[in-house]
Amino acid sequence: MAIEKMKKISITTFHDQSETLLKEFQKSGTIHFKDLELQKLPAEYLFLSKQTPAEDFELLEHKAVIDTTLKALKPYMPKKAITSKRPRLTYEECCLYLCDPELKEIHRKVKSILEKKDDLSQELKKAKSENTQLEQYTFIDFSTTDMKRLTKVKAFLISIKTAKQEIRFDLEKTFPELYIEELGIVKQDAVSLVIADLEKSQEVQAYFNQQSIPILDFTFDKPPQELIENNFSRLNAAELELSQCNDDLKALGHMYDRILIELDAVNTVLSRNLVINNFLNSRHVLYMEGWVPEKDITEIYDLLDQLLPQKYYIETEQVVQDDMETPIKLKNKGIFTYFESITEMFSLPVYNELDPTSIMTIFYLIFFGMMVGDVGYGLILTLGCFLALKLIDFKEKMRKTIKMFFYIGISVILCGLLYGSMFGITFFAPIPVQGGGYKPILDTQTDIVFMLILSLVIGVIHIFSGLVMKGLNSYIQKDYAGIFCDSILWMLTLASGALLLLAGTEIIKFGTPKLFGIIFGICIAGLAATQGRSSKSIGGKIGGGLYGVYGLTSYIGDIVSYTRIVALGLSGAYIAFSFNLMSGLIPGVIGKIVFGTLIAVFGQTLNFGLSLLGAYVHSCRLQYVEFFGKFYKGGGKAYKPFKVENEYISLKKSNQED
Fold it and tell me: Which family does it belong to (predicted)?
């Protein structure tokens, strides 16, 4: 239930030492740097200033080139086995990829190929567009360019609506000497060739304008059909060149993984060059602040002594409990480490709060196991996670998640043994039954009421655990009144209320309803008197107290909410049983083998997925609402140390390391 103890550090050194120092800090990966603000520092630091944030345009451009190359080569990246490992490199080996001449040549080639592909794509687009237009006028069997070069006559291409052919009759009547030939139809327009003497050409053109007859101004240097054929030749040639460009990219695909390492190198150097924007500067001095885990502070001192003997000044101070700026690093051991992501999904604790992960893990395993409760499903989950961890090189965060589900699988197996269920079939029934036969420890057919009561009991324990955590948080935060008023008093109220109910129904034989009623009444009065204590006004105190008493009703809903544990467990068991029953009803030996097996496999796979999804969601819900709601505020900011960016490599500290 601990949070990593932090120390706040401030380091002052000379500008000319900053690059060397930041490289080593990045390799150590232990300092979470603070983005400094000048106005929040003491007066003796006023000689410092905050520089305008700098951007490394050269590296950003380099990164953009890498992104372009990766995007181009991704379709041709070599296929890797799922068991393949990330390359293991040191920090120095990774950074060498930044200036690798072979990679620079790859980027140049890819850029050239992409530019050529772009030109070819534009040419293809243009040729296809031209053909779309030309295909409408294949009936024109001459060059319009040659037509415009006629010297003794004037030729026009005009378009007349087919529904308005009277315009053509009027044209022939007005200018009987014209040569008029209808060449073809485009949509609803008739395209005609009109030839007139030069002396009459202006008069004819004026007529066209007066009658709003469109004159088609085409510049075909060859007949359209011939141009279409030429364009098809261009299209075929361009597509061949495009295919060759893709082949050239494919030939470079084997470099994809090396370029990913180069991307890690660029991101590493880029983060180092940009982190300086968090610091304060003078002409010669660099000042930085941050947080380091207490256990790593000696490493920082040793590093500074080794790199900058007598060229630095460092101050460290213990972080105060109420410092909301302090980054949070959870500190759990063993199995509890793998369930930290569940806490992080909700919110990290602040520095003066308990980390609820360890207690939450215990209940999460119980809830998840009872909601699925099948040995077969648990074996699939556990073995699947085990093989994945052994065979696949996961990144650290994903590895922790897989390990979490590995332990969840074990919980599902144990609860499956309680239910005696494997894929919906009862296989473990050690309890003898009166009248003969045996049954599971918890029979989903006959022990439903007992299981319901068991889930409610687990829920009460869960809620009381939250109230205990509330008291511990109050102690850490030195809210000693809160230990009693917000923790002990609530537990006494709930316990006395429950005992009053049980005594009144004669379920328990000790005590009397009157005694428990008096205790319950005193507790209610205590809640009314204390729950509004934070308010300054009398009215606020009274209202807060009454509202606190009203909050007792929410506990009823919280406790009833735990019945979902049994509901999900029973629904999964019945669905599995139903699919097994359906597969068994298929007639015939062959039918049972083929269709019965298909139904069983499909049904069990579906139920497996739905059971895991439902258990994951509802187990989280019980933690976040019923448990965390009693004591946990959260709101802490994550510890993000300044470190090497190793998305695509596995980092090793030295060449001697395996």
Answer: Belongs to the V-ATPase 116 kDa subunit family.
Chain position carrying tokens 């429950």:
498
Q: Collect all residues with Cβ–Cβ distance below 8 Å to 45 and sequence separation of at least 6.
A: 38, 280, 287
Element (H, E) at 439: strand 438-439
* Encoded tokens for 403: 């390990």
Q: pLDDT for 284-293, tens place per residue?
A: 888 899 999 9
CATH C-level class of 142-222: alpha beta
The architecture (CATH level 2) of 2-45+275-330 comes to: 2-Layer Sandwich (3.30)
pLDDT digits (tens, 9 = 90+) for 1-39: 678 999 999 999 988 888 889 999 999 999 999 988 766
Structural tokens at position 76:
């041709």
Rounded CA separation 146/638 (Å): 77
- With helix as H, strand as E and coil as C, how does 253-303 read? HHHHHHHHHHHHHHHHHHHHHHHHHHCEECCCEEEEEEEEEHHHHHHHHHH
pLDDT of 53 reads 57
pLDDT at 655: 60
- Residue 540, pLDDT score: 83
Question: Which one, of 400, 90, 394, lies nearest residue 261 by Cα?
Answer: 90
CA–CA gap between residue 299 and residue 310 (Å, rounded): 17
**Residue closest to 355 by CA, chosen among 334, 375, 327, 332:** 332
Q: What pTM does this model have? A: 0.82
pLDDT of residue 138: 86
**Which residues of the chain are modeled with pLDDT < 50?**
none
Q: What are the residue ranges spanned by the domains of the chain?
A: 2-45+275-330, 142-222, 331-630
Domain 2-45+275-330 and domain 142-222 have a common topology: yes
Q: From CA 404, how far away is CA 384, in angstroms rounded?
A: 12
Rg (CA), the chain: 40
Q: Answer whether 566's CB lies under 8 Å from 451's CB.
A: yes
Query: Residue 600: enclosing H or E segment and its boundaries?
Result: helix 597-621
Cα-to-chain-centroid distance, residue 223:
58
